[in-house]
Amino acid sequence: MSTGNVRLRVAPSPTGDPHVGTAYMSLFNLAFVRQQGGQFVLRVEDTDRARFDPTSEQQVYDTLAWLGLQWDEGPDIGGPYAPYRQSERLDTYRPFVDQLLASGHAYHCWCTPDRLTEMREDQQKRKVPTGYDRLCVGKSYEQRVELGGAQATPVVRMLIPDDAPLHFTDLIRGEVNAPRPDDQVILKGDGFPTYHLAVVVDDHLMGITHVVRGEEWISSTPKHLLLFDWLGWERPAFAHMPLLRNVDKSKISKRKNPAARLTWFQEQGYLPEALLNFLGLLGYSLPSGEEVFTFADMSASFDWTRVNTVGPVFDLDKLGWLNGHYIRELPAPSLQSQLVPFLTAAGLYDGSPEHEALLAGAVPLIQTRMALLSECVDLLRCFFVSDESFEVDPAAREKSLVAAGPVLTACADALSALSTWTVESVQGAMDAALIEGLGLKRGKAYAPVRAAVCGSMISPPLPESMALLGKDRVLTRLRAAAV
Ligand code: GLU
To answer: Is residue 45 lining ligand 1, measured as CB closer than 6 Å?
Structure first.
């Protein structure tokens, strides 16, 4: 394959919220494409009408764009091989089905679903391998009807030969052995091709040079190789990525793990650069061993032989660590604008100039304390909550405010005498009154003040928070908690 001509694709099926695996596959496809100066195609495989979800396609665009995984051709932006939605290509597949029927590589099958179930149950009872028993091979519809269990609308199946290619070379795994396939259905009764036919036809017609997909497709590859050979087409290269796994090693599924949904990462406040780095680390390591890397680093060093073959474990602690790292790296104005949607959704932020100024002041106080953007809601509640709605949470009240009246009053008296209100003056007055004056240790002195002023046992640094809140709000809260 010559440099510059590589064409790779990701081929999600729009069946609900985009799966994290779509981003993972896109990342690895794209790392290679950008290194080689080729093209990345987004193809929508929507031939499974039973599982089709009309909102899913837009979510695929939105989540991949959020991650910066930009495709060069796709249903939304077009390209030289349009259309890129399989449901709009139905006329494309039929001539190839006819060609395979004419060459004897495929046949009509009229078996009813009931007959196929009976056949399978019988095979299981007799403990023989299950698979289509070829009752329809070499028969006309009339001949088949005489045998019973036939329906008028046939499907089309591949006639898998005894010498089907069960070995192939994988860019990641080297030589791979796959099991012998069953006579795969390639055209359904509704006239839609199955994945197996559509993927081969489209990969060929769209000039795909490398098929990079999940390892669950290894067992399908022999069928695809046969189709490429029968249709007289050059085989692409194959790379099967290891499946993402839960910590208990099970496959990540949207039903069992919220982190299987790409939108979950947006809701939780992961940064796209952190998720990309994490997905990269799951399957790849830089030659330097460095764990923090960008897409550009990964792409520059990309080499299929450095991709793991063992299913990487989806360790959210590691992702949290990476996210904290990338949050700390953000310029403050960028972090500020990324926090606004979380605070707005929590009903805390109204976009007024006062709120904007308050947020600008608060960002430096929390930037080093967050693993997730969504944590800003609890950390910043005390600044944005209205004075009428402010409450000390019950745990903080119980732990720090019982019998704390004298401490809070001493603090309020000292602070009320201040004529300048800065971090230094607030801290100086508090320390003088509580540590020197009442002989308290810093922890004991600050805990009730923190509970009274911030409403919680956890807050941004206390003197800085008080400086930002302003004298009036601080004094009101201290006096209210002192009674
Ligand atoms: N539509 C298939 C999927 O969603 C694509 C598999 C492939 O890349 O060939 O997994």
So the answer is: yes
